């Protein structure tokens, strides 16, 4: 903090971490602790945004860099250090691929329901959510406790990716049907033209009239028209 050349930047980084890293469900970090216990027992809304877009991009880069500083600080003397570096780099890449798939499938201001296929949905959630939210924490622990057999890792990945898919489907469902006082969600996925599970299912089962209603309301923030 007191370095004469970088003190201001480090102070900004501290503010970023306190703002963005504190709060939430913390299930990714807690998963690491929970799995470690199992395999080796012990002996935001827009009004809250405070920075401009350009600042947010730089802040995200700073936070990403902190991953590797923390790994170096706590793990560099460990045999699994390089494994974790590679794991986190791969997970970051997979997440960005998923985010890119999401952005090109449901771009803002361009509603094309023909892109909303179940296959594409599963690909997006696998890369955007499941790898870093479910597989990454468990794979981290497996390296830490030296479980590095190919069969075990493959089985773990399969299970964790399926859990990630289930999590996202449930999250999409709760966005519309959950209690807002509990979920803090207000059912705007369709108005926001988000590629969600409910839209995928609607496209598979809807009547022509229901399809037109969905099309009219996708990406449009105005009163919705539902079948009588």
Write structural notes for this entry:
InterPro entries: FPS1-like, Isoprenoid_synthase_dom_sf, Polyprenyl_synt, Polyprenyl_synt_CS. Pfam families: polyprenyl_synt (PF00348). Keywords: Magnesium, Metal-binding, Transferase. This is Farnesyl pyrophosphate synthase. It contains nine helices and no strands. Helix 2 (27-39) packs across helix 5, helix 3 packs antiparallel against helix 4 and helix 5 crosses helix 6. It has one domain (7-217): Orthogonal Bundle (Farnesyl Diphosphate Synthase). It starts with 6 loop residues before the first helix and ends in an 11-residue tail after the last helix. The chain has 228 residues and is mainly alpha-helical. Residues 43-47 have low confidence and may be disordered.
By CATH, the topology is: Farnesyl Diphosphate Synthase
SS content category: mainly alpha
The CATH class: Mainly Alpha
CATH superfamily: Farnesyl Diphosphate Synthase
List the helices and strands in order. HHHHHHHHH
Overall form? globular
Overall mean pLDDT score?
A: 82
Please give the CATH architecture.
Orthogonal Bundle
Q: Give the helix tally.
A: 9
Task: List key phrases describing it.
Farnesyl Diphosphate Synthase, 67% helix, 228 residues, mainly alpha
């Amino acid at each position: 903090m007191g370095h004469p050349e970088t003190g201001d930047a480090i102070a900004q980084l501290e503010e970023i971490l306190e703002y963005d890293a504190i709060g939430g469900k913390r299930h990714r970090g807690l998963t690491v602790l929970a799995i470690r216990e199992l395999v080796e027992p012990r002996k935001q809304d827009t009004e809250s945004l405070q920075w401009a877009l350009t600042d947010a991009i730089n802040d995200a880069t700073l936070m990403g860099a902190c991953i590797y500083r923390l790994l170096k600080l706590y793990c560099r003397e460990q045999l699994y250090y390089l494994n974790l570096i590679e794991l986190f780099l791969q997970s970051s890449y997979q997440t960005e691929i998923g985010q890119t798939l999401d952005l090109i499938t449901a771009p803002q201001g361009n509603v094309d329901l023909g892109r909303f296929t179940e296959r594409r949905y599963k690909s997006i959630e696998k890369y955007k959510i499941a790898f870093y939210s479910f597989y990454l924490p468990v794979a981290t622990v497996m390296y830490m406790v030296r479980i590095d057999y190919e069969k075990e890792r493959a089985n773990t990945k399969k299970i964790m990716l399926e859990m990630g898919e289930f999590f996202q489907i449930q999250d999409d469902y709760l966005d519309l049907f959950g209690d807002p006082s509990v979920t803090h969600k207000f059912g705007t996925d369709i108005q926001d033209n988000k590629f969600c599970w409910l839209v995928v299912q609607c496209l598979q089962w809807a009547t022509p009239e229901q399809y037109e209603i969905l099309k009219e309301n996708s990406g449009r923030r105005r009163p919705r028209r539902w079948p009588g």
